[in-house]
Specification:
Distance between the termini: 35 Å
InterPro entries: H3K4_H4K5_MeTrfase, SET_dom, SET_dom_sf, SMYD1_SET, TPR-like_helical_dom_sf, Znf_MYND
Strand content: 5-15%
Main location: cytoplasm
CATH topology of the largest domain: Beta-clip-like
Helix content: 40-55%
Enzyme class: transferase
Radius of gyration: 24 Å
CATH superfamily of the largest domain: SET domain
Subunit structure: Interacts with HDAC1, HDAC2 and HDAC3. Interacts (via MYND-type zinc finger) with NACA isoform skNAC.
Subcellular location: Cytoplasm; Nucleus
Number of strands: 12
Number of domains: 2
């Protein structure tokens, strides 16, 4: 079954998993298998006035809708592009007196689209909204309560002159959002800013070691002529060689967790038992729970104690980060590393989590040398665990490269930036803003490296002068969330 731009994939029934997607032709790493615009999408409640409601880019100054005073856009181009989807919402918000929550807004946008186009197959979609999984029957008590509250709020917001839908159908739509909502990120890919529904992507099954990745592309409305504008979309990209007939899989969760934890998370959020190879055979679990090798191997009791200490410390770190107490975070990380280092192996996930936080926060505090040391150890561990073409690995290697560069460790910095660039070319593609940023850094560090190799003394003198004249670029403030996860779950 293929449709508008989807000729290279087909929907099939996957044994024990329901529907899945299969490749119709061969793909190589970095190939875009398909790109899909959102069926409907909304900005998160907390960010409605700093993110464009059309392309989801973060902008300094946004243009506000004069009618509802709720929606914001980059410029007239984005505002015009949004009108078809915003028209009904605009008058409903004015009538209601205020905008409802993101969940209600997304459900309403889906319903208005169904009112306009019907609930059959939309253009370019392999399945209809009616056929998407809702898992309402699997909801626990708490989720059912939330669902009832959402349906009530929706009915209060939904205009009487719009098409009226039955309670069961409205519940189906909320179930679809809960199970299939996809996280949309800003143009740097570092912050989750919204949620959207992409029916074709929903058909891709999960695998902890997938052959595809999904990247959100904000599109480009900056070209002078609108014929060169590109639409906001997700791209399904190949991570490894895929042959015709192979199932296309993506990972719904971060791999950096032992199989038992990943399975628990998948069961809780997506209502299925993961039967992928990595979970069945617990591949890489030994690395993620590694302990120090050598003469005096630590006792099981000591390992248990250190892991418990690490878990408690991570909770304290989260609290301190929430309050912006970054020096306290550093102190907690150093204490924890002191306890971990004699006991845990260099690929142990508890050690890697602390190294990751320490390097990020120290970079923000401009303590680059210590940050670089932790970043290097983190990357060395990640390289043994992650798929070589993993987007999260690429982003971590990029951060480590920038940290080394800031620390004046130009050789290691340039090497890491090149490594990150090679990964992101596959996961994000050459035209993604992150890859373009990285290309600029790659050229800059290459130039600096040549200067360093010709005359080390002169390189450091020039670097010193440059740092005196310009305020050193501050690293972005550490965020409390990890890289946005693939599918958005309402907490």
């Amino acid at each position: 079954m293929t449709k508008g731009g989807m000729e290279s994939v087909e929907v099939f029934t996957s044994e024990g998993k329901g529907r899945g997607l299969k490749a119709q032709k061969e793909f190589l790493p970095g190939d875009v298998i398909f790109a899909e615009p959102a069926y409907a999408a909304v900005v998160f409640d907390s960010l409605t006035n700093v993110i464009c409601h059309t392309c989801f880019k973060r902008q300094e100054r946004l243009h506000r809708c004069g009618q509802c005073k709720f929606a914001y856009y980059c410029d007239r181009t984005c505002q015009r592009a949004a009108w078809l989807n915003h028209k009904n919402e605009c008058s409903a918000i004015k009538k209601h007196g205020k905008a409802p929550t993101e969940n209600i807004r997304l459900a309403a946008r889906i319903m208005w689209k169904i009112e306009r186009e019907g609930s059959g197959l939309a253009e370019g979609c392999l399945v209809s909204i009616d056929d998407l999984q809702n898992h309402v029957d699997s909801f626990g008590e708490e989720e059912k309560k939330e669902l009832r509250a959402d349906v009530e709020s929706f009915l209060e917001f939904w205009p009487s002159q719009s098409q009226q839908f039955g309670m069961q159908y409205i519940s189906h739509i909320f179930g679809v959002i809960s199970c299939n909502g996809f996280t949309l990120s800003d143009q740097r890919g570092l912050q989750a800013v919204g949620v959207g529904i992409f029916p074709n992507l929903c058909q891709a099954n999960h695998d902890c070691w997938p052959n595809c990745t999904v990247i959100f592309n904000n599109g480009n409305h900056e070209a002078v002529r609108s014929m060169f504008h590109t639409q906001m979309r997700i791209e399904l990209r190949a991570l490894s060689k895929i042959s015709p007939g192979d199932e296309l899989t993506v990972s719904y969760v971060d791999f950096l967790n032992v199989s038992e934890e990943r399975r628990k998370q998948l069961k809780k959020q997506y209502y299925f038992d993961c039967t992928c190879e990595h979970c069945k055979k617990q591949i890489k679990d030994d690395l993620m729970l590694a302990v120090k090798e050598g003469e005096s191997k630590p006792s099981a009791e000591t390992v248990k104690e250190v892991i418990q200490f690490s878990k408690d410390t991570l909770e304290k770190i989260n609290k301190a980060r929430m309050e912006g107490l970054y020096h306290e975070v550093v102190k907690l990380c150093r204490e924890c590393l002191k306890k971990q280092e004699p006991v845990l192996g260099d690929t142990n996930i508890y050690l890697l989590r602390i190294l990751s936080i320490a390097s990020e926060v120290l970079s923000y505090l401009q303590m680059f040398e210590e940050a670089a040391d932790y970043a290097k150890r983190m990357v060395d561990g990640y390289l043994k665990i992650y798929h070589p073409n993993n987007a999260q690995l690429g982003m971590a290697v990029m951060r480590a490269g920038v940290t080394h560069w800031h620390a004046g460790l130009i050789e290691a910095g340039h090497g890491l930036i090149c490594k990150a660039y090679a990964i992101l070319l596959i996961t994000h593609g050459p035209s993604h803003p992150i890859t373009k940023d990285l290309e600029v850094m790659r050229v800059q560090t290459e130039m600096e490296l040549r200067m360093f190799q010709q005359n080390e003394f002169m390189y450091y003198k020039m670097r010193e002068a440059a740092l005196k004249n310009q305020k050193i670029q501050v690293m972005p403030e550490p965020s409390n969330e990890t890289t946005p996860s693939l599918f958005h779950k309402k907490e």
